[in-house]
């Protein structure tokens, strides 16, 4: 990242990248529901593109694990059972725990600044009691947490898991924490980084993930 205010090249996205983002977002928000079959002709028409880039984009999502190919049937959005839900959060724990350790070693101050902004957005969403906005802000907070550690590979792995997390929450909205509780969970993470307390931070991130597993099991 350059100095604040310094102009930098704007990244250009290919059609395949744009279509991948569109499909990923549709899966994340549930407009392409778990188990839904993807029809090439219909999707190409809705997106206003040819089938070539659509096929390539769908294959990317197969590689990410968000779509599954069934022989002689086609491509389907994945479905998540209880074991999958637990696996998603345990995988997130492994990634975010490592991200936390790297943050404490490398760039604690920058991480606190970025996470404070993300926390403010979560506070605003919680104040409105808007579940979708809260989920967006929650996801953005964890994306910032991982991206702050400086590992592009951890960031890439975390992105797909966060999409799967949203799929879990879309189906199980009743298990979502109360707004004040959600804010407080994330505020404690920022405070632990700011205070330089690595052991407390790692305990908090583990509790954050295991508590989510427990809430989803109860549902």
Automatic annotation (TrEMBL):
Domain HTH gntR-type residue range list: 13-80
GO MF assignments: DNA binding; DNA-binding transcription factor activity
Superkingdom field: Bacteria
SUPFAM superfamilies membership: GntR ligand-binding domain-like (SSF48008), Winged helix' DNA-binding domain (SSF46785)
Listed Gene3D superfamilies: GntR ligand-binding domain-like, Winged helix-like DNA-binding domain superfamily/Winged helix DNA-binding domain
Keywords: DNA-binding, Transcription, Transcription regulation
Name recorded for this polypeptide: GntR family transcriptional regulator
Protein source organism: Actinomadura darangshiensis
